[in-house]
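Title: [Solved] FtsX-like permease family protein 3D structure

Original question kept below for reference.
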Amino acid sequence: MRGVAALVAGAAAAAFMALGLPWDIGECGGQCTQAGDPFTLVWAFGLVLYMGIPLTILVAMLVAILGIRAVDPGEAAVRAALGETPGTAVRRAAWTGLRHGLIVATSVYVMAGAVHVALEQAHGWEPFSTGAETWAVRAEEGILVALSLSIAHVIAVRRPRRTPVERLREDAEAMRPLRLGRGAAIVAGLAATAAGVIVGLALDHELAEGFVVTNAAGIAWGACWILLVVLALAAVLPWARGYAPRFVALAAGLADGAGAPRLAAVLAARASSPTKATGRTFMTVGLIAFAVGALATGPTAVAQSDLLVTTTSVSADSTDLRDELAAIDGVERVVVGEALAGLDEWQRAIAVDPADLRGIDDEVADALETHPGAAVSAETNVRDITTDVFRPSGIVPLDGSWDTFVSLADVTGPTAGTTYLVYAHEGADREAIDQAATAVETDSTWSSSSSYTSGGDSTGALVTIAVLLGLVLTPVAFGAVKAGSREAATFAALGAEPRLMRQALTLEGAVVAGTAVAAGMSMGAAAHMVMAVLGAARGSLTGVITDSYTTLALESVPWAYLVIWGALILGIFTAVTALASAAIRLDTPAEALRNKETVR
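Solution (posted by the thread starter after getting help):
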């Protein structure tokens, strides 16, 4: 079981690291070699918060679902007889989990690094020349996964040890229905209180004057996230698993109507006596589905046109570069704007006429015209983009750009220079355009430029995550079939056909997994929508504009992707269940116990 735990932890580490690999490097312009923000303690702390939910789910799955053990029961008994104290056992378990976690995390880190370098070389980049900060991010991700595995081992060694007979009995023990009681009401009340704090502050302050208000809203937002996760995983999802047998019974009715009365009888019998093993299967698949629903994010901000290749800013005394840039092969339009002064080196504000963006960057144009006086930016605080010549009334969130766009009519003073926005034809060679624009000579006293990517192909990342998902679901499916095979063997001993029992195990697993996917993903999506709305209310304290909270909530969830990932989870689990059902021996509980004693 320790090997399975290490495999699952390694799969989780690989999933995290795969998300940060430069899969879109083929569409990358000059910004690929630009140094990003340095990896600071703030970044490290933010990564801990970001990974907190999936790592909590990982620990819960290892301990409560897979039931990992830091040491074998026999070894633990011998050590206890030799005088090993509980504290020593805990330290040994912590070190075992940490050692195994570091081994798998290091292995995954090396493989992810190899893929990173291979992607660079495949697209003409020098090794280690892109994404310098991602190496540190992947290292921290590996360390956090290793610590999570260590925590899981510590929790496991503190749990009461069960004998093989007790574990066998527990697999067949009836699943007790769970009711939402006082504990769930308390957690829900605390979450509602935290949400009320955010909403109250947003209603009371049009724009927060100090950090006290914004910090209070941030703390309340984080607390609400944690409480919603606890409520979903500790109360609502366990309550929902009680409905899984009803869907198995529904499948039995459908099988009877389809002319398979024997299969229907077996499924009906399984539905009438659900076991704890069924509950564990539901919880594991539901946890994974909840994580997908809670973490998947849809587009809610204004989308920068993917035809924008580069922006070039020059001083006001420079010669006009419009004709030279427009003459570059593949360029569709060059929009001329004004560069605003007063921001730091990492921020650029560009004043443009929205009419010039029509037909090429419509969403930015719409935002500038709909919200006169506001800025369209990825920044989250209006004070960060306030200058002497432009004081924005708010921020319209922007995705796909690190520049800030304002309407030229709202600028009240002199600007620092001219900015040229270069847009390409659909399908044009972006890299060639970027290089040609950079090579244009200018007599400017200063100049700066930035390049944009069109997004690239994320197929590699999706395939990698799908494979890792299969690695996580495989032991769960095999465990579910193994637990159900004992009751199936009893049916077989009473005259049922083994082939029929294997079909029943596969169909039951598919129904339970499908119910878990629907429940977990629905809860995750609901939690995500709530937090998206509260995040927007929190953002209003620093000037971020939200036109419709209802629209924001609905758009924050990528519904099509949830359907795809839900079908993928269900398909992988069903396929593995079918393979396990075909391969497993149908031993009765007595035979399984006798075989275990014979091996000993």
